[in-house]
Amino acid sequence: MPNKKKYNVDGDAGRKAQIQFADQKQEFNKRPTKIGRRSLSRSISQSSTDSYSSAASYTDSSDDETSPRDKQQKNSKGSSDFCVKNIKQAEFGRREIEIAEQEMPALMALRKRAQGEKPLAGAKIVGCTHITAQTAVLMETLGALGAQCRWAACNIYSTLNEVAAALAESGFPVFAWKGESEDDFWWCIDRCVNVEGWQPNMILDDGGDLTHWIYKKYPNMFKKIKGIVEESVTGVHRLYQLSKAGKLCVPAMNVNDSVTKQKFDNLYCCRESILDGLKRTTDMMFGGKQVVVCGYGEVGKGCCAALKAMGSIVYVTEIDPICALQACMDGFRLVKLNEVIRQVDIVITCTGNKNVVTREHLDRMKNSCIVCNMGHSNTEIDVASLRTPELTWERVRSQVDHVIWPDGKRIVLLAEGRLLNLSCSTVPTFVLSITATTQALALIELYNAPEGRYKQDVYLLPKKMDEYVASLHLPTFDAHLTELTDEQAKYLGLNKNGPFKPNYYRC
Fold first, then answer.
1. Separation CA 207–CA 271 (nearest Å)
2. Do domains 69-257+427-477 and 264-417 have the same CATH topology?
3. Cβ density class 236-253: b for 16+ within 10 Å, e for less
4. Pairing state of beta strands 202-205 and 124-129?
5. Which residue of 117, 246, 260, 413 sits 20 to 30 Å from the alpha carbon of 486, by its own alpha carbon?
6. In 3D, which of 349, 330, 331 has the Cα closest to residue 292?
7. Residues forming the annotated binding site for NAD(+)?
């Protein structure tokens, strides 16, 4: 396809800012139940479905219990290349997408400015992310930019059925519904990838399950794939593992560690959505509650700030002395989990690690302690250890379980240890606009990059692109940036139009 020279964006003051893609000189910086009838794989990777799934309880009561895989559905155009809960919900999903568009100004700007040039013309993107109204806006933006898309869900509980239906009605091959079984999860991914006459050339992943599925089942596909864009801690960790082992055979973009993802999605999104998720599932009062937050990265910082503001007594566990010192300077008590496990009312994991909360911790918790996870993967809480004969599971409401010990003690487990906010509530659209815009620009860059620019490694977004994403969202606040004078720019050794920080600076 013709080489795309540059992608032009008009600024508020009438200036024309230019973000170069294919001819960009500067490379990105490198940085090191219902059991299904067919089992595609369970041991393929440490997936977001590793623990037992009681998916049958997570269905919409307004729908029948027939598995979407057993239904024959077509959209209004006669296409059946999708699998959703109920295609008849499409109208409701479309309204939700239209609401989300109002809070995603940067993506709407990209659509408008791409009406002439199609920087993703010829791109065939296979995606595996949370399927929400915000993701729908991203997918439809990618379509407006010229791409063809096929999509599955990265989490068995986060799909909004009506949004999936709206996407299917619009012609997007979507394979996802809320409450998938583990077998359903892998089946949906396989249906996205393994289709006659369609070969993906880009991957957009959240958690790494899609990438690992292709590696294990269809490795020859990577001969035509130009790159991977990954947005989660878990998925990025898995990419670095592949790179270290010499098995990463295409370039990959680490969106998770971009400033626009870390400082906005991880921090501000979690600061608001942690309260929403806990309120919807438990109706609890936060004032005076003792909470331990495991991990003081950006997600942990957001959770701690929200809970402290509501009057909770917050403890923090951390392995990194720098993050630990930040927690102390922010007024939180740094502890080991064992020191407070008997007294706290809520345990929240935010690490991206595994076995942060073990069976020993669970055994020692007080009666009615609430346990939940704000990390992508369900490995942080050892939920599998609770699936033993001596413990009783009692469903309270959707995605809320009591796990009862022989002496009558019970804990309240939310979303079976999966991502709390997207499983049990919603997340602020505006911050997801920032992340989605970053993903779109990363896809454009990788797709249009000339051969040889990016090697088989993991790359970070340049600061210039982070700044560009932020600038697209400033008009929402009627914000006015100060411009450097020529003298000031020379004094600082900067270009007047940025970047204003070096690529290694994390804000």
1. 21
2. yes
3. bbbbbebbeeeebebbbb
4. parallel
5. 260
6. 349
7. 297-302, 318, 421
Does domain 69-257+427-477 fall into CATH 3.40.50.1480? yes
User: Residue 317 forms beta bridges with which residues?
Assistant: 294
3-state helix, strand, coil in the chain (%, to 5): 40, 15, 45
Instruction: Return d(Cα 478, Cα 475) in angstroms, integer.
Output: 5
Known binding-site residues for substrate equal 132, 206, 231, 261, 265
What confidence tens digit (pLDDT) does each residue in 322-359 have?
A: 999 999 999 999 999 999 999 999 999 999 899 999 99
Q: Which two tokens stand for residue 259?
A: 């400033």
The number of CA neighbours under 13 Å toward the Cβ of 40 is 18
* Relative orientation angle of helices 209-217 and 233-244, to the nearest 10 degrees: 40
Q: Whats the size of the chain, residue-wise?
A: 507
Backbone angles phi, psi at 422, to 5 degrees: -80, -20
**How many Cα neighbours within 13 Å face the side chain of 266?**
24
Contacts of residue 234, Cβ cutoff 8 Å, sequence gap at least 6: 48, 207, 208, 352, 375, 376, 377
Which pLDDT tens digit goes with each residue over 427-474? 889 989 999 999 999 999 999 999 889 999 999 888 888 899 999 999
Q: What is the pTM of this model?
A: 0.79
**Using one digit for the tens of pLDDT, what is the confidence trace for 353-406?**
999 999 999 999 999 999 999 987 789 999 999 999 999 999 999 899 999 999
Boundaries of every domain in the chain: 69-257+427-477, 264-417
Q: The domain 264-417: what is its CATH number?
A: 3.40.50.720
3-state class of 366 per DSSP?
coil
Instruction: Give the span between the Cα atoms of 6 and 468, in whole angstroms.
Output: 14
